[in-house]
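Following the same procedure, the fold was encoded as tokens, giving this record:
***
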Amino acid sequence: MHRYRSHTCGQLRASDVGTDVRLSGWLHNRRDLGGILFIDLRDHYGITQLVARPGTPAYEALDKISKESTVRIDGRVVSRGTENVNPDLPTGEIEVEVAEVELLGAAAPLPFTINAEDGVNEERRLEYRFLDLRRERMHRNIMLRTQVISAIRHKMAAMGFNEMATPILSATSPEGARDFVVPSRLHPGKFYALPQAPQQFKQLLMISGFDRYFQIAPCFRDEDARADRSPGEFYQLDVEMSFVEQEDVFQPIEKLMTELFEEFGGGRHVTSPFPRIPFREAMLKYGSDKPDLRAKLELVDITDVFEGSEFKAFAGKHV
């Protein structure tokens, strides 16, 4: 048998009942119910419930191991029985009766709980980031980002775009913010700049004849934090096309974004095709060239209604 596991913690099903297995993971939670010890063992793939009977070496070992310790267990898969099935877990029809336990890494007392969202403050979470990333919500968010990027790559390639990498150390190319600079070791007093966007490089690719380019591009900008991005760096989908008109750009991006939100939006409706609003109309109706159409708020000219008003704020026509 493999040194650490024969199955993952999200893999076992009712069809595995009677099988001897080996699992490795983190001790997620522990419950002592009437002398029988129940353990939730967690890894990247899911959670499997373990059971240890009183008077066994496994019981004595698991009763002393702290939460979030790394353990390896050997045991046999048994059925939970209809009345004890957990419908919230893919492994909810089975549990593993533990025969042997190996402590791979003991955890010190935790600064906050991992198995529950207990409202711990952000500074604490960042200080113990390696623990914060074990929490279900954070793990799910990172995997969602991975899946979205993978889907973008697949969909862009299917539309004939070629993924290419561009340099990180380059000459300065001013955009909307200040550059981050990196001192040159070989040329004292001179600096590289980190790209605010791969603008020059992707246009170089176009005039070189590569026709359709895309990149999940890192962008470095020495600017203050924004509500939707961290200060200093972010990633963007960068696209460039040759011999195209405006509609040729709209169509693949609209297709990509519609399919992404349908796939990962949790059942939310996607309006397609996207509304096309001329700039002048957008500014007159919404006062913004990127209006939030979910809010039915439009500007209305009521100058005539207040014309001649003695109220100073409305006295003039241009207010």
